[in-house]
Amino acid sequence: MFRHRGKRRTYSHNLKLASALSFVAGIVNITGVLSVKVLTTNITGHFAFFSEEILFKKHQSAFMYLLFILFFLMGSFISSLIIEFYRNGKKIRPHTFPIIIEIILLSFVGLSGDLPRDFSLSSHIIAYILLFSMGIQNSLVTRVSQSVVRTTHLTGLFTDLGIDLSQIVFNKEYTAHQQLKKSIFLKLVIIICFFSGCIVGGLLYKLFYIKTLLFASGFLVYIIWYDRILYRYYFLRRKLR
Questions:
Q1: Could you please report the per-residue DSSP string of 162-214?
Q2: pLDDT cut 90: percent of the chain above it
Q3: Which of 54, 130, 138, 173: disulfide with 152, CB 3.0–4.6 Å?
Q4: Is residue 1 included in any domain, yes or no?
């Protein structure tokens, strides 16, 4: 899912990556909306709010929206920096540290509801951390999949889906037609899994509130474990041949 790069990377790898991490993004998205009333998986709307606050000379509020944008950017930058640093490492896989950072941050916010009132996190701090985490995830997925998969926002995805649907109507050449069908299926999987994450996260939030993020971080731990076990399985199978 994470380990294969370049020509070794297959459609199946991207499909697994897309379904798993878009589900996580959906959970984080709905939890952010319900807990702090902030969209934390994309920054498109924050640019509009930032411009609005500037227009009405509400500079403090404008600065807050600017920080939302910058924290997402910072997460993306740091994730890519780590991947680049460990890109040629044999002992340490480049995807490991960004996911671990995301797990720690989501767990920290998830557990913040149990902190004493004097040490509790403000809604803005929670939003900053979640935006930073989603910046990490989006950059990681983009780098690993070579820009094929993005899991934290759907605007560009729906645009690409519309383009693919229009092309499949007119493109009857077999190979190109099959490629378009696979591309459409991949995008639909991301949309469905993101939506499923939002639904599951919303239901969990009714019971666990901000602790819902612990389910997202737990799922990320499972993804790392699954990827490691699967890699060892195929490695041993090749070795025993």
A1: HHHHHHHHH---HHHHHHHHHHHHHHHHHHHHHHHHHHHHHHHHHHHGGGHHH
A2: 41
A3: 138
A4: no
- Could you tell me the pTM of the whole model? 0.88
Q: What angle is formed at CA 221 by the lines to CA 215 and CA 226, rounded to 5 degrees?
A: 120
Task: Look at residue 168 and tell me if it is in a domain.
Answer: yes
| 4-34 pLDDT per residue, tens | 565 666 777 778 888 889 999 999 999 999 9
How many domains is the chain built from?
1
Domain that holds residue 135: 27-240
Cα distances (Å, whole numbers) of residue 132 to 3, 75, 126, 166: 23, 4, 10, 35
DSSP 96-164: HHHHHHHHHHHHHHHHGGGS-GGGPPPHHHHHHHHHHHHHHHHHHHHHHTTTS---S--HHHHHHHHHH
**In-domain check, residue 63:** yes
Burial of 30 (0-12, 13-18, 19+ CB in 10 A): buried
Answer yes or no: is pLDDT of 172 > 60. yes
Q: Give me the mean pLDDT over the 130-158 stretch.
A: 83
* pLDDT of 92: 61
**Is 14 inside any structural domain?**
no
Specify burial of residue 109 (Cβ count, 10 A radius: 0-12, 13-18, 19+): buried
